[in-house]
Amino acid sequence: MGLENIKHVVLILSGKGGVGKSSVTLQLALSLTQQGQNVGILDIDLTGPSIPRLLNLEDKKVTQAPGGWLPVEVHDAREATDNDTHKRGSLQALSLAFLLPSRSSAVIWRGPKKTAMIRQFVSDVLWPPNTDYLLIDTPPGTSDEHIAIVEELHKLAADVRPVTTSNGNGLALEIDGRPKLSGAVVVTTPQAIATADVRKELNFCVKTQIPVLGVIENMAGYMCPCCGEISNVFSKGGGQIMASEANVPFLGSVPIDTGFGALVEGVNDLPNATNGNPATKGHGPERSAELVERYRRCGLCPIFADFATRIDQRIRNPPAS
């Protein structure tokens, strides 16, 4: 029950708050679906869930079904057609915010209740069959939520049973098909005050045996909405230096893009990243276009498409230990 339909589980981590873990989670999910992968997002930031807001689905509620909860559908899967050559996978999401009475409801829980909720998220959610990736958006730090989710995922990965080999020469161990924790993407901003905290998250990954798939340096510069030029408003390169010193992969830097902010806020006149001209303002089909389709016009889309490809390749072809 729970994660049987999931092939790969990826944690989005950071030891620092406000570095953009939720926006990174969303953009990786959208990029993976644009590459034909079926994706789920699990938001375990119990006291500050952001995913429903970013998806503009705060009014949605989780449906109770026989055997567990059904996640909220963000968009369905579609095959390429003559009119639309883009094949895409499906996207589902689950967050505690979908279970609360309103967006202003405060969650004031001690550690044991947080742990119990995360265990329920792992065991009682009916993700669709053939879900390729489950991206787990985590709160900052290395506290109850992180320990609970890692323990549950490692427990599933270790759930093996003895079977008789086909040639009758004895017993072998066979994993029961449940997913393993494929690794973590660690998010930081370039400033030293952020990387100092995020280094602790890398240490957490070492101690809990989580492979680091890569470091993303978020908010590294500002992307001009008119010409696309990137200016280094703050420092740059701290994330790359941290990744190099920790001997983990560096995926790349992500600038601040007002177009992405407009996208998640529901503004329809996004700048066109390819030529700097304002795109057609939101009327008719554009106004009702799904988030995954509108994201194709966002200036950050090519950056996260590259991240998604490299993460997928690293999971499917892990480096030799």
TrEMBL record:
ATP binds at residues 15-22. One of its GO terms (cellular component) is cytosol. Transmembrane segments: none annotated. [4Fe-4S] cluster binds at residues 224, 227. It comes from the Eukaryota. Its main location: cytoplasm. Keywords: 4Fe-4S, Aminoacyl-tRNA synthetase, ATP-binding, Cytoplasm, Iron, Iron-sulfur, Ligase, Metal-binding, Nucleotide-binding. The keyword Ubl conjugation does not apply. One of its GO terms (molecular function) is metal ion binding. GO terms for biological process: iron-sulfur cluster assembly. It is found in: Cytoplasm. PANTHER family: CYTOSOLIC FE-S CLUSTER ASSEMBLY FACTOR NUBP2 (PTHR23264:SF19), NUCLEOTIDE-BINDING PROTEIN NBP35 YEAST -RELATED (PTHR23264). Belongs to the Mrp/NBP35 ATP-binding proteins family. NUBP2/CFD1 subfamily. HAMAP family: Mrp_NBP35, NUBP2. Component of the cytosolic iron-sulfur (Fe/S) protein assembly (CIA) machinery. Required for maturation of extramitochondrial Fe-S proteins. The NBP35-CFD1 heterotetramer forms a Fe-S scaffold complex, mediating the de novo assembly of an Fe-S cluster and its transfer to target apoproteins. This is Methionyl-tRNA synthetase. The lineage of its organism: Eukaryota, Fungi, Dikarya, Ascomycota, Pezizomycotina.
